[in-house]
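Notes on consecutive records. When two proteins share a document, each keeps its own sequence and its own token line. Never mix them. Below: protein one.
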Amino acid sequence: MPTAIAVTGADLVLPPTDPQTPNAAVLADPAARGLDDSVTELRRLVDRFGHVIVVCPASAPAAVAHRLHTVRGLLESDRIALVRTDLPPLGAAVLVRQLRQLSACDFSPGVLASAARLLAHYIYAGAVLGSVSRLDRVPVTLGSHLKSWLPGAHFAVLAGPTPRIVRVGADETAFAGPEFTTRLLIARGQLATDWPTASLAPRWAVAGPAEETVLPASSPAWWGTPKLVEFAAYLSDLPVLHQLVASVRRETCHWCGMELIGDRCGFCAAPLPGGTPVQAGPTR
């Protein structure tokens, strides 16, 4: 039985890549449901699937994370992993879909939960913005702030894995992308531009046509403006994702006994003693 992937909002659930990709369970908003209902909701998932990995963006309201920790504490369950991610909304949704794909494979719950940090490193998540004057989640230079007041100025912003901001049409060559084959997902806001598909995709050697989806409701707040087109370049093929995760040495958590990869347990968050294992990257 696959490990259940749960999310804190419907915006984190993208259409499956194939019929074998499991769906994700969307947990109810704490503001709309009492604590007892939240406990029942997660208990049912644990009883049905054995282990549950809950992906919660770091940008989610504090009440959401607090409710998750409270429920896990009340259930006294070591079979619930709470995965936080700093990725912007569209990138976080891509991460969730990758975890859903991998949940149908032969990975243990511990490896799957700790793989989230590894996978996030290979998601190039960004946006084209009409202004960076209210952008506070990516470092913005004074020059970029001043240029954002110029009429018609657009900015390409990369939130991760390495933050970067360039003015569209000026210094785009500095907007380096992944050194491996990716697919491109875009979500359009109120900004009229084809830059991600017309300029970015060829420069980053994106494979195939871009996939389009609805802009997550939380994206305008995350990026500081509704005038945007959000994008994410990512590894889409399940065999590549499987090889990436399988190539990393597995360890056993000294605290909870779960299997893990990387430097931290995905279930109890205990660090791995003695440093970080070497991680392999994808190939073209």
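Protein two starts on the next line and is unrelated to protein one.
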Amino acid sequence: MTASDASGLPQHVAIIMDGNNRFARKNNLDKGDGHREGKNVLDPIVEHCRKLNIRALTVFAFSSENWNRPRHEIELLMQLLVDTIHEQIPRMEKFSIALRFIGDRQRLSPTLQQLMQHAEQKTAHFTAMTLSIAISYGGMWDIINTAKQVAAQVAAQQLQLEDVDIDLFGGMLSLGDLPPVDLLIRTGGDYRLSNFLLWQAAYAELYFTQTLWPEFTPEEFDDAIAVYMGRERRFGKTSEQLLHEKIEKK
């Protein structure tokens, strides 16, 4: 698939990158090697999205629940995140992609927090695409955190309670300035959202694949896009209503 096929493409794709440890077991590798292999898969997917003129890609790198994993695995994942950010900055400059991070940064090391902030500042002016990496992120945390912000503004009389609606609240969430998630892909064979972008993906089309993340390719990404483009997105309306609206636009 090329950019010439752009009609009907999703504006915002999210990916739950699952299956690194199972890939390591499958190939008799050390557990950490699965995460290392998974890190290398991200670059071709990002470049492919850029070629397709997809506006935003958001990937789930480390969830709020992942803090419950063994300490050695957490330390490895944190180091891989540091390595990834260092590697991504020149790539973002090459492809004019803005890099940002979402999640609860308070649990991250000061070094990682500073590196994330540096990467965001250095790439903020790029407009070709936005790559968002979710680190220490959970959808429930995101909603609660935003609710606290709204409550604080109402208490300070900076915001009237009656002004709080879906658009205002959604705009204050992580990624609130980006389009809602159109397509959410999960690799690794599990069929759940795992607390990822619960609000932002409320109307996303879901694509689940048995493929483990280190084996995921741009070709399978195209398969997911093809499935997405073959679905009818009704947003609560009927097929007949959509057809009538389409006729009226002609």
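For the record: The chain has a mean pLDDT of 92.
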